[in-house]
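Researcher: I'd like a structural prediction for the single chain below. Treat it as a standalone chain; there are no partners to consider.
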Amino acid sequence: MAGLCLFALGGALLASLPGADVTLSWTHSIEKTEWLESWAVADDRLRPVEARIRGTGAGMEPGPDARLTADGWLVWTPALPPQDSVTLAASDFTGEHRLCAAADCRPLSGWTGAGDRPVVMRACR
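Model: Treating it as a single chain, here is the predicted structure.
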């Protein structure tokens, strides 16, 4: 089974996460609303599984198949093909990304051991 690895922008391995599924979350810089994305590792690529937001606004347009859940989330399946990698930018305006893998949820720095900085998610090979 393939897993998910986190790399520094220069290519150094920072962490190998348990399992092949991960949920990524962050707070939108302008709307201050939580955004969650679920990703799965398949065939050595990252496949977007689901996205969810708690409202819309600047740069927060849900997909055309979005549905509103009873607990207030807009949920949809992203129309994005599998990705070789996903870069998580660091921003003073959003706070740190949060990653959940195998029921273990931590701030990004809790996985990498380093401060909030850009990190590349990629399938472990």
